[in-house]
Each structure stands twice: as C-alpha cells, then as structure tokens.
Amino acid sequence: MDKTSCYAKLFPAGRQNVLLPNSGVGLSLDGSAMKLDRIDIKILYQLQKNGRITNVELAELVSLSPSPCLMRVKKLQAEGYIEGYSAQINIGKLGQVLTVFTEITLKNHRQIDFARFLAAIRKVDQLLECHLVSGGYDYMLKFVTAGIGEYQTIMENLTDMDIGIDKYFSFVVLKSPIVKAHMPLTSLFPV
After folding, report:
1. If I label 123, which of 64, 79, 113, 143 is the partner at 20 to 30 A Cα–Cα?
2. pLDDT tens, 72-96?
C-alpha cells in the first residue's frame, strides 16, 4: 500500500469540508456540494488575516452591507470552513527558541506502522506540524523547542519508543525571513 492511500485511510474525516482548487466548490463529508462564491472567498481571506476585524469593517472590504456579511460568516462557521479564531503570538518576544524541520523515514509502510507513528508523535507538545510527503522520506515534521538539548531528547525518546522510525534528518532553522500566517485564498480559489 502506498503512502497516499495509507494517509487517506488514517485521516478519512480530517476536515468537515474540502475546498476543491480553482472551482469554488466545497465538498461536505456526505458528498454534497456547497458552492462558495467570490465574496465567500474574500471573507475567508480577510478573516484569516485579521480574526478580530469588526463585521462592519469586513463588510466594507468585501463590498457587502453588514447584515448579509454577518450571515455569510455564520454560514461559513456552521459549514466548518472557519474552524476557530486565535491570537498569533510573537514567540521572539518571549525568548529564544529553536525551530527544527525533521525528515522521518519509517521502517515499514503498512497502515498499522503509520498509525503507530502518528499516535506517538501526536503526544509531543513541541511538534507543530506533521506532513506525509512524497520523495525519499515519509514525513516532514516541524518542532519548536527551547533549544537543541530539548530537541535531541525528544528525538531520542521517539526512537527509543520503537514506533517504526528507520532514520531521521534534522534541519535547524537559522533565520526565517518570510513567514506568512495566511493562505493566498483569492488566487488559490478564483471564482
């Protein structure tokens, strides 16, 4: 079984809705299509940039009056396109941290191997992202730790747990000149 089909079996119900690129169509888990228009995409784009924007300001940016804008936002929330709101923390103001990208290759590629690995790494608080990828390794992980010692302890613990890690490669981030917190929705999903 290839990595992609294992991923699909492990995460069959990841998000409530999936937006198909370049179509403006979202699919619900039950398979019913939900049509998003240009204004819905603009609303999502603006909200991901500023979740604290007032409804009046948002309505103005998307060329709607406040009442229909609020109705659309509530619909997008109800349909699962908006999963929540959060604050973006400037971690550099809190102190020094270490960001590490880690390539992981598993020993075996059965569904149970992927499941065992994912169950273990989900418990690691310092893990921010985990991506199943194509290419010469299986997963790309992103860790943020207090330092190299903490990162190395995490990796030693993971390899000692016998969760199927064959090998891993670490890439320490020296500088992050570009970090965006929002997706280019209006260009990804032109409607």
Report:
1. 79
2. 999 999 999 999 998 888 888 999 9
Tokens of 165: 């890690």
Residues 71 and 137 reside in one and the same domain: no
Residue in 138, 160, 158, 156 with CA at minimum distance from that of residue 148: 156
Evaluate whether residue 48 is within a structural domain.
yes
Q: Domain range holding 100?
A: 91-172
Same-domain status, 97 and 83: no
Residue 36 pLDDT greater than 60, yes or no: yes
CATH number (domain holding residue 132): 3.30.70.920
Return d(Cα 91, Cα 175) in angstroms, integer. 14
Q: Is the dihedral of CA 33, 38, 43, 44 positive or negative?
A: positive
